[in-house]
Structure formats: structure tokens, C-alpha cells
Amino acid sequence: MRTRHSPGITRRAAERLLDGSAGSGPDQLVHVLSAAAAPAREGELAGERAAVAAFEASPPCAAGPLSHAETPRKRKMPNLPIVSLISTKVVAWSLAGLVVAGGATAGTVAFTSSGPTPTGNGGAGAPAASPAGNGEATSQGNSTAPAGSDSSAATGSSGNASMSPSQLCTDLTTKVQSIMGETAGPADGAALAPVLANPAVGQVLTTAPVSGLLTTVDNATAVPDYCGLVLDLPTVPVPGAFTRLPASVLGQALDALPATDLAGVLNSLPTTELTQTLGELSPTQLSSVFTTLSPGAAGSVLSALPASSLGSVLTALPASTVTSLLPGLPAGDLTQVMTTLPNAATGTVLSELPATDLTQVLTTLPSSALGNVFTGLPTSDLSEILTTLPSSALGNVLTALPATTLGDDLTQLPAGNLSSVLSALPASDLSGVLDSLTPTDLSSVLTTLPSSTVGSLMGSMPSGTASQILERLPASALNGLRGALPSSILSLLPL
Asked: Is 304 domain-assigned?
């Protein structure tokens, strides 16, 4: 018995519907076609641009003949009713939309902050699915992995966990060298730096397994410098992007570098990037960096910092690190550091040093640098520094200061600290210090001291030297001190 079918629509009407022209047809079919032809809704094409960029960045594959095993036998398609043909086209359009959206997602997954996630196609570089839909893969220059083998290259992330950062970075450089036309192989750090700086790094990062590096550093821009640290390169491949590394990753990577490579990395950074890099490190990480560096390398790094950053670094370091760091710096670097530090930071740093190390630092500085260091120090720090110095070192420091700086420093000391400082000086240094003061500063110093201290200080010097110093005082100040002076000195003073 033959079943009676509806006459349906004509081929011409079907083509008009597919072309978007108004026409008659079944309501459900018109509805489906309208939905397929409508613009994409928000979110359906998310990541499309990134996917297109990833596909365009991938190297072209050489076209080659397909083998008989890979080419499915064509089967003669039976004649289908026109409505079925239309339905097939509609389904094909719908699937194409899903593939585009899916491809966009796959193309952008490597750039998310959490790193690559498992996908069925492994990103832009994965083999395309077989037209037959039976699980076979067409040949595009990559062989199909056998069942049960490691498929990390196809999944994009499943193999990343088994590869160390060093292995991933080595894989990255090897692939970039291949794109550059270079022969991949063992190379020193100086040769690998331009490889990592090559723009082809961005192209390779869209493929597995190296896309797993994005999980660690969060952004593709920082990958070259991260790999530079991991591979112990002596220079930074892309100095301007170094600060894009997360602080936690940066600290761990710097801590793992040998002293020579660490020095090379820091000294290759421009001042701005060096300042920001050190500013992001914790006190513990800073301490690790500067205890790893040789004295010469540490001096070079510190000398490159501007005043505010230098002060922040040295005051953030533990006192024990500063104690071992400053005395060992080369004289030129030490002078540069101490004359660049802001006054408050200078006081903090010097007041933390034990007597021996403080002596070594201050006696290494030339007189001009000493005057700079002792200008504008906070009173509490100045008192701590001067009362910590041994008497011989104290005399050397004070007698080397310019008269103006010396007067400013002594006149701001409280009476107790001033008495301790001057009483600790050998007689020759005491006379030299007092004799270099201006009459105004000398009067301020002697009238601040207790009378007993004035008498003791004057009596420790030869009477002729003491009387010459006292004769420089204004008459009013000298008359106020007469009662405290020994008779041997009074007899030499004018009435």
C-alpha cells in the first residue's frame, strides 16, 4: 500500500527561503531558517577574534594527497525530498555556528588567567576530525597517537603537569628556533635570549604543551623573561616586560638563580624596571637577593637605584643583612650609595650598624662624602651614631667634617649626648674639633654643657691650647664659664 505524501514546497521556493527572501512555506521551517539567519546573540561568538588570530598565527601546513586509508569511500546519496535537503542545510549551519564558537573558546583558553584547560581539539594546532566521523584523524603533518599512548599534545593540558618549567621553556625555545630557521640544540644563555625575545614566542604559546607556561605567569608577555630566569640566562630577554611577572613567581625564580646569573639579570634591567622589581620583593626575598650577590654586584645594583628606591630597599632589609652588606661594598659604590640615600634612610641604616661595621663604613668614605652623609640627619639617629663610634673613629669622623656640618651636628645634640661625644675624644681631636667651630657654634656648644664637663674638657688639653680656644668666645659667654675653668687656664685669659 502506497503512503500518500504532502506535495511539500517546490525547489525554487526552497532556494528563495534559503536566500532569505520572503516566501511561503511551512511555519516551523520558516522559524528555523529565521533563527539560523539571525545575528549571533551575546556570548555566542566570545573569543572569536582570539581564535582567528591563533589560527592565522599557526604555520601553514603543506597540502599533500590523502592516502586511500584516510580517504573514505564516497557513497552515492539517494535523492532526498527538498524539505529534507533544507533541513540538512539548516543543521549544517547550526553545527557550523557551534564549531566557530567552540573553536573560539579553544583558541582563547591558553590566554586565561588559570592557564589551559583540557579541550577536545587541543587548540589551533590540533589535527582536524575525520570527515567520516568515525574517530580517525586526517594527516596534517602530525601522526595520530595510538590508543593508550600519551596524548598530552592533543589535549593541551593533560601532559603539562608531568613537565617541569625548565622542560616547557626548553620546548618553547626549540620550537621558536625552528620557526626562525635555526637548528635547535644546546646553546648558551646569550644565544637563547634573542630566541625568547622573538615574536614567534606568541605563536608557539598557542600550542600545547608550552601553553601550560601561561598557568604559571598568567600572561604571555611575561613568558620570555620567566623562561630566561628558569633557564639561568645571564640577561633578561625582554627587559621592558620583566615587571609583568607575578611577585611570587619573580621571588622564587630570583632565589633559584646562581650569583653570576642573578647579577646579570638585575644589571641588565633598566632603572625603572629594576626599581619596580626590587620594590615588589618581600624583605626576606630582598635579603636572599643581596646575600647571594657578590659585593661588587650588590654595589652595582644599589648604585643604579634612585634615592627613594634605594632608601626603601635598604630600610626594608633586615639589620643583619645591612650589616653584612654595606661594609663589603667597593669604596666607589659605598660612596655612591651613602651620598644618594635620603637623610632619614641614612640615619636608619647607620644607626643599626654595630660599632665595628659603622667604623668601617664611615672611615671608608672620603671627607666630601662624610659631609654629605652627616648633613640633615635626624637628631636621634645622629646621637646614636656618634655615641656608638669608638673614640678613635669618632675623632677621625668629626675632624673630617666641614666646619658648617660639624657645627650643625654638635649644636643639635642634647646636653647628655654632647657631653658623651666630646668626653670620648682624645685631647688632640677635641682641640681640633673645638678650634674648627665658628665662635657662635663654639659658644652654643660650651654653654650647653654642664660646668663640670667644660672644666674637665678644658683641663684635658694643654693650657695654652685651651686658652686660645676660649679667647674666641664672645665676652658674655666667656665670663659665664670662668667659674668652671682651672686656674692654669684663667691666668692665660684676658681679664
From this structure: no
Q: What is the distance between the alpha carbons of residues 441 and 451, in angstroms, rounded to a whole number?
A: 17
Domain that holds residue 372: 325-495
Q: Are residues 339 and 270 in the same domain?
A: no
Which of 216, 250, 280 marks a domain boundary? 280
Q: Is residue 187 part of a domain?
A: yes
Q: Does the structure show a pLDDT above 50 at 64?
A: no
DSSP notation for 74-86: P-PPPP--HHHHH
DSSP SS3 for 137? strand
Q: What is the pLDDT of residue 163?
A: 87
Distance of CA 220 to the CA centre of its chain: 15
Give the whole-angstrom CA distance, residue 48 versus residue 323: 57
Among 70-84, 163-177, 329-343, where is mean pLDDT lowest?
70-84
Asked if residue 393 lies in contact with residue 353, where contact means CB atoms within 8 angstroms, the answer is no
Residue 225 has pLDDT above 80, yes or no: yes
Q: Of 100, 99, 98, 86, which is closest to residue 33 (Cα–Cα)? A: 86
Instruction: Tell whether 379 is covered by a domain.
Output: yes
What CA–CA distance (Å, rounded) separates 268 from 130?
A: 51
Q: What is the pLDDT of residues 237-279, one digit of tens each?
A: 999 899 899 888 888 889 888 999 999 999 999 999 999 999 9
DSSP helix/strand/coil, 129 = strand
Please state, rounded to an integer, the average pLDDT across all residues of the chain: 78
Burial 321-335 (b: 16+ CB within 10 A, else e): bbbbbbbbbeeebbb
pLDDT in tens, 422-454: 999 999 999 999 999 999 999 999 999 999 999
First to last CA, the chain: 152
Whole-number Å distance between alpha carbons of 29 and 17: 9
pTM of the entire predicted model? 0.62
Comparing CA positions, the residue from 419, 421, 356 lying closest to residue 382 is 421
Q: What's the number of domains the chain is made of?
A: 3
* Of the candidates 218, 324, 248, 312, the residue with the CA atom closest to the CA atom of residue 274: 312
Decide if 61 is inside a domain: no
Q: So what's the pLDDT on residue 190?
A: 72
Tell me the C-alpha distance between 184 and 171, whole Å: 10
Taking only the tens place, the pLDDT of each residue in 131-144 is 333 443 333 334 33
